[in-house]
Amino acid sequence: MVVTGGSRGIGAAVALKAAAAGYAVLVNYAGNAAAAGSVVERIRQAGGTADSVRGDVGSEADVEAIFAAADAMGPLSALINNAGVFDQPSLLADMTAERLERTFRINILGSFLCARAAARRMAQSRGGQGGSIVNLTSAAAKLGAGGENIDYAASKGAIDTFTIGLARELAADGVRVTAVRPGIIDTDIHASGGRPDRVAQMTPNLPMRRPGTADEVAEAILWLVSDSASYSTGTILDVSGGRAILP
C-alpha cells in the first residue's frame, strides 16, 4: 500500500492500521522526514513492514520515484490518495494565482498522477492483479467553504467527480475506486492552514458536538480497501459526524 502524505494525521493513522492488517506500507512525505521515519519505526517495532520516501505528489518525476520505491516492496494492491494542502482563510478576491496553483497542483493533479501510476500497476488489462484506490475528499466539497477556503473546497469537489469517473473506468479491470469525505477532524492540518484553534471553534456547531479523529477516518479507509467492501466502487463515504448532510 502506498499512503501519500503518510507522515501525520489521517495518513499516519492509515499507515499504522494498514500495517497491522498485514500490508507492507510505503509512507510518502513531502518534507518532514523525522515524522515519516517515526511512523515507519512504529510499524517495524510492531513487526510490520514499512519504508518511507520523500516526494511532491504534484511533481510527475517525484510520483514516478514514489511508485518505483513501492515496486521494490512487491506488487501494489492499494493506494491511499491522502496528500493535500489547506491554506489560510481568504476571500477569492484576495487569493493569489500562486495559492490557487499550489492548491490545485497538489490536491487535484497530485491525486491524478498517483492514481495514474497505481492504475498502470494494478489494472488487470496491463498485467496487474487488481486493487483498490481510496481518494481523500472533504465535507467542504459539499459545503463550498465560501469566505474561508473556497479553493480547497473546489479541489475536493474535483476529487469527488474524479472518484466516480475513475471507478467507472477501472471497474472491469479489477480496480475499485472509492473515496472518504471527512468533516472536522482533529489533526494538525488546521494549524498548517493558519488556524490552530479551528477545531475548538467549530466543535459547538458540529451535529455530534465533537470533532472526528484520524483513527475514525482510517477505519473507514481500511474497510473500503478490504474484501468486506468488494462490491463497492464509485462510493464516497461521509465520515463527518453529520456535517456533510445538506438540507
Automatic annotation (TrEMBL):
Keywords, ordered alphabetically: Oxidoreductase
Domain of life: Bacteria
InterPro entries tied to this protein: NAD(P)-bd_dom_sf, Sc_DH/Rdtase_CS, SDR_fam
Record PROSITE patterns: ADH_SHORT (PS00061)
Family: Belongs to the short-chain dehydrogenases/reductases (SDR) family.
Stated name of the protein: NAD(P)-dependent dehydrogenase, short-chain alcohol dehydrogenase family
